[in-house]
Design brief:
The complex is a heterodimer of chains A (about 150) and B (about 200). With about 150 residues, chain A is of the alpha/beta class. Chain A contains three helices and eight strands. The model of chain A has no long low-confidence stretch (mean pLDDT about 90). Chain B has a domain of about 130 residues: Rossmann fold, CATH 3.40.50.12280. The longest helix of chain B is centred in the N-terminal third of the chain and has 17 residues. Classes of the chains: A alpha/beta (about 150), B alpha/beta (about 200).
Chain lengths: ~150, ~200
């Protein structure tokens, strides 16, 4: 059975390496600042005792004031998982860093989030619509769509 | 940050995507109003009181007794259609047990399920590839009007936006009995059809 790691414990570990990165932490999840997402992700993937080599899923939530991106990470070796979140402010052109360079599985899911929520992933190799067709106007999963 | 080595193979099909988008937008712009149902056969019979010849009767009998369905089932109504085709309800009784994978061998399209705009050009193409004479049964709420997804940004509100529909079978999904009733209605409709056929044999003689 996969062990769900406590977000606050991981946050404590992370503050040693990245003192500025953690915005919020609870038992359920770690919320990091969007500018340090990639280095935190890199750390979570490469540090041997965490070893999050598998990205289960990415999803995004629209809270009006900000978009929250939810990364479900799993370590196949240690059989534990963690929920990593980041927040993306500004409705005009929301953007975060892409994690395709770390987990290739992020490719299609980031495209889907871009397609339906309009969040841009900087560094994504092919950020195009994936579910809807090109030429579709708007991003229908945003709460202010229509 | 360095991107993985197979970066170049990452589904860069931008040309295809753009062409697809243009095709969908064009079809969507063209399909804002429903296509009228083909019902001139009804009108004609009432107004001019046409008597069908025995040749018509024979041709219509052959046509309505061998309706072959094109395989084009985009969503969940397909399961009721499969049930209808299977042994318990058995549409083989009506001479139509063969579901054709090639639209060129089919003369009936049973539109089982929700249609999205992204899928619409393909359905239209299958319809265009079917040989005349051809008929369409709109099966289920989604096929009739878009159903519960009608107001969605991605769903075609009724198949009659893109293809002319002969018989509507309501239900979500319709029971196999309802579909069978719809098929019987279509056969009834076909039997009223007046055909102008020039047989090649007669031409040469």
């Amino acid at each position: 059975m996969t062990v769900y790691l406590s977000g606050s414990k991981i946050a404590k570990q992370m503050t040693e390496n990245f003192p500025e990165a953690v915005a919020e932490a609870s038992d359920q999840a770690v919320v990091v600042k969007s500018e340090s997402l990639l280095e935190v992700a890199q750390y979570l993937k490469s540090s041997p005792e965490l070893d999050f080599d598998y990205l289960t899923s990415i999803t995004a939530v629209d809270y009006y004031e900000y978009f929250e991106l939810v990364y479900q990470l799993t370590s196949l070796k240690h059989n534990h998982s963690l929920v990593l979140k980041t927040r993306c402010y500004g409705r005009d052109k929301p953007a975060v860093l892409s994690v395709v360079s770390l987990w290739r599985g992020a490719d299609f899911q980031e495209r889907e989030i871009y397609d339906l929520m309009g969040i841009r992933f900087n560094g994504h190799p092919n950020l195009n619509r994936i579910v809807l067709w090109q030429g579709f106007e708007g991003h229908p999963l945003c709460k202010d769509y229509l | 940050m360095e991107v993985g080595r197979s970066e170049k193979n990452i589904h860069l099909e931008s040309e295809l995507d753009r062409a697809e988008g243009e095709q969908i937008e064009a079809l969507r712009a063209h399909s804002q109003k429903p296509i009228p149902d083909p019902d001139e056969w009804l009108d004609e019979e009432l107004r001019r009181n046409i008597l069908l010849t025995s040749l018509d009767a024979a041709i219509n009998w052959a046509r309505r007794s061998s309706l072959w369905t094109a395989i084009c089932f985009p969503a969940c109504c397909a399961f009721e259609l499969i049930t209808t085709a299977a042994s318990r309800f058995d549409i083989a009784r009506f001479g139509m047990e063969i579901l054709r994978a090639s639209p060129r061998q089919a003369d009936l399209m049973i539109t089982a399920g929700t249609l999205t705009w992204k899928m619409a050009p393909q359905v239209r193409r299958i319809y265009d590839q079917m040989a005349e004479p051809k008929w369409v049964i709109a099966m289920g709420a989604c096929a009739i009007s878009g159903g519960i997804f009608r107001s969605s940004y991605a769903v075609v509100p009724g198949y009659n936006r893109i293809i002319p529909v002969d018989v509507y079978v309501p239900g979500c999904p319709p029971r196999p009995e309802a579909l069978l009733y719809g098929i019987r209605m279509l056969q009834h409709k076909i039997s009223k059809r007046h055909t102008d056929i020039v047989l090649p044999l007669l031409q040469t003689g």
